[in-house]
Amino acid sequence: MLRTVFNLLKGTMVLILLLSPATSFGQYEYIDINKPFLRKIPMAIPEFSRLSEAGTDPPPLKQATEILTSALEFTGYFNMLDSGAFLLEPGKPIITADQINFKNWTTIGAELLVTGGLSQNGSLIDLELRLFDTFTGKRIVGKRYHGKVNDMRRIILRFCTEVIMQLTGQRGVFDSRIALVSNGSGNKELFLCEFDGSKPVQFTRHNSISMFPAWSSDGKWIAYTSYVNNKPDILIRSINGKEKAVISEKGINIAPAWVPGQFTLSATLSFSGNQEIYLLTGAGKIIKKITNSWASDLSPSWSPDGKKMAFVSNRTGAPQIYIQDVNSGREERLTFEGNYNTQPNWSPTGDRIAYSSMTGGQNNIIVIELKRREPVQLTQDAGNNESPSWSPDGSLIVFSSTREGPSRIHVMTAFGTDQRRLLTLPGDQSSPSWSPNLSPK
Amino acid sequence: MKKEEPQTSSHRLSSTKPENRILVYFIAISAVLHLVLIAGIILVPALAPAKRYIPTVVDVSLVSLPAQGSAPVEAVVEDKPEVPVATPEKAEVKPEPVKPPPPPPKPVEKVSIEPKPKASKKNKKSLKHKTFKPSQVVKESVTKLEKEVEEKRHPTLEDTLKRLKREVAREDKKPRSGRAGPKGAPSGRPGGSGLTSAQERDRVRIYQAEIAYQVQKNWAFSEQLAGGRTDIVAAIGIKIMPNGEITDIWFDQKSGNRHLDESAYRAIVKSNPLPPLPQGLFGSHFTVGLRFGPGGIK
């Protein structure tokens, strides 16, 4: 009798164990939440306040707020809330936690709040910037800067780097630049601009054709193709413009790409009679031949670890993208969809490659994940979209597009959202190339 | 054998056996076809695969609304900071029709038990207006909302606790009809209600779906900000009181990704209060877990 009861009990226990959800962590059921309604974090940035130990001059509060807002908005991570909805008490500074009524911010839906305090003394400014989590009231970042008024933008961008660093563990894009080609002067010349398209400056003055700029991974060198000698040669120039080298083999010399972490680059040379990719020193000396096929091999782009190289080859008849393991020489074909895939650009995160694919007479940007090998088309029905180049943190892609008629430089997130024009210069712009982060940390 | 061989060959050459001829014929056809195929592969290599469908990206901007939409906007009415029970109840849209200190006339306006989503929708609109035409409303809203916020949020913590204690006490006094060991099973084991277990399960499901809907609506998560990772999961437990108020939030498992953990926590805070617990289904409270993962994003 006792035994039967015992067995019964045992059975019940087993049953209970079986019935309880296997995946649960606690003692209760779990509801899965997989689809966030908002893909951007609601952020509020009220206009900066004057620091209490006010300086002699009225500080440029509005300008500083705008620099910060547009820089953070550029990342595509945040949804900037309309300042008209802010619940502010006029005249009351909002800088430190004890000056903030966080309920006022959670009520309007803000999850993050950035406050700034600014004072100016002649040509010097003091700037206090803070990032708060409105729901916990915690300060995530707090910085105090002292510098020249003229450096205000740089100071604010440094704070933005801190913010992104805290939130993502990455340094973001704020100290990167973009090289591009513009023909406004009548010739295709290289230009450099800030990450957000501001401050474009002309980099080359060859009065010839210059194209395909490529940044070395320390950001100190740019290699590009130039017709200054009436045939395509590769010029290598330091950013400060002082040092130069030339790759001027017989035939064509095009499409340079630097090997990450090294002062070596790869490029397509045709002196052997066939277009093959070679490895060269930063001074332009050939180290070795990398590809070897009867077809043309072009447009190299390196994985961030420098072990693999993506390139374009027409060995199957139409241009497709291949990957070579540089040590073993083993090659595999990456793209199978479409019959005109070119301009591969390896993401700095290493897991994706962006490229340009022609379908139906239009070029579009496609990103393929290397693990799953599933291409996703990021642009469509918007003219020709070409020359994708990743931001140093892999969160954004810059590319050229003819969606507005003339070719312009555009930027979008790595997922194809938030497509917008980066800058407008006279003439057409093309071949953008995003630099690595430039100020070493 | 030897002798016969020439014969066979002569046979083949001259008069032929029909099978042999057919064989040669087929070999020839096969060779030609192979050549055509090889030529085809070499000359038109990329034709076949070109047709596959490549998924594209659609950029959709959803209009967001301040999370708490439902509670603050609607529940204005009179300032009665002194009635501790009344205020928090107001905040919760539709409290279970309890008997406590005769709550002011408001239950009349907000009776509904089921159409939770509708209620929140209505509120959405009004809030939207507020955010979109701020200039006109700002002044009023500053004072009004602040007052509300003060009324509802600030004092509530204390008041809520008091009220909860009272409620718990009340619950304890209640005859525990058919409830079996509610302590050990806070997991939303249906209590004694006249429903069949299948019906009860359905109602629990529906309520869980309501929770999921509301929390999801309030969840702001950027996959990019989380480094594009889709394999991370944060598990959070919450305790829901009969009026829908979340009184406790804890992490069962952190994802290791700060953004996911924080965004999940905020989504829950923003979703407070949830729809009131369906009557008679749960005990004094309902404990449930929420598992946040960006797996569904693409």
The helix content of chain B is 40-55%
How big is the Rg of chain A?
Answer: 27 Å
CA distance, first residue to last residue of chain B: 74 Å
Q: How helix-rich are the residues of chain A, as a percent range?
A: 10-25%
CATH homologous superfamily (4th level) name of the largest domain in chain A: TolB, C-terminal domain
Structural class of chain A: mainly beta
- So what's the overall shape of chain A? globular
Tally of separate domains of chain B:
2
Question: Would you write up a description of this structure?
Answer:
The complex is a heterodimer of chains A (441) and B (298). With 441 residues, chain A is mostly beta strands. Chain A folds into 2 domains: 41-168, TolB, N-terminal domain (Rossmann fold), CATH 3.40.50; 177-434, TolB, C-terminal domain (Neuraminidase). Chain A is built from 4 helices and 31 strands. Chain A has helices spanning 2-19, 61-74, 102-107, 152-168, and strands spanning 30-33, 41-44, 49-50, 78-80, 112-121, 124-133, 138-148, 177-182, 189-194, 201-202, 210-215, 221-226, 233-238, 244-247, 253-258, 264-269, 276-281, 286-289, 297-302, 308-313, 320-325, 331-333, 341-346, 352-359, 362-369, 375-377, 385-390, 396-401, 408-413, 420-423, 429-434. In chain A, strand 17 (276-281) and strand 18 form a beta hairpin. In chain A, helix 2 packs parallel to helix 4 (152-168). Chain A is globular. The model of chain A is unreliable at 14-24 (pLDDT under 50). With 298 residues, chain B is mostly helical. Chain B folds into 2 domains: 4-51, no CATH class; 67-119 and 142-171 and 191-296, Fusion Protein Consisting Of Minor Coat Protein, Glycine Rich Linker, Tola, And A His Tag, Chain: A, Domain 2, CATH 3.30.1150.10. Chain B contains 9 helices and 3 strands, in the order ααααααααββαβ. At the A-B interface, strand 1, helix 3 and strand 26 of A face helix 5, helix 6, helix 8, helix 9 and strand 3 of B. Strand 1 of chain A pairs parallel with strand 3 of chain B, so a sheet runs across the interface.
